[in-house]
Amino acid sequence: MSHHLVNKAMEVKIPGVRKWVLCVLAHQAVMSSGEAKITMAELAEICCLSTSCVRDHVKNLHRAGQIDAVLLRNSCVYRIRVTVA
Q: What CATH number has the domain bearing residue 16?
């Protein structure tokens, strides 16, 4: 859990639901590496959103350069790359 990454994620100017997904990923991340290992279903459950909604927001965060995603067999490792403009 990284409060520092959550604080940085809160400063990013992005739409509300996308920011919520980013904040949950930041909260799940290890501070030293900025990495969060979580399945899409777990992320959707924590965010109280559908899996498809979370998947779309994760894709948009990845395209925007806010996160990197490394696919594993049943989950994914997300590296938080929060940049505040």
A: 1.10.10.10
Domain count for the chain, please give it: 1
Q: Is the pTM of this model over 0.85?
A: yes
Query: Whole-angstrom Cα distance, residue 76 to residue 11?
Result: 25
Range of the domain at 27: 3-80
Residue 75 CA, chain-centre distance (Å), reads 13
Average pLDDT over residues 30-52: 94
Q: Rounded to 5 degrees, what angle do the CA atoms 59, 60, 66 make?
A: 100
CA 18 to chain CA centroid, Å, is 9
Closest CA to 61 of 82, 44, 43, 30: 82
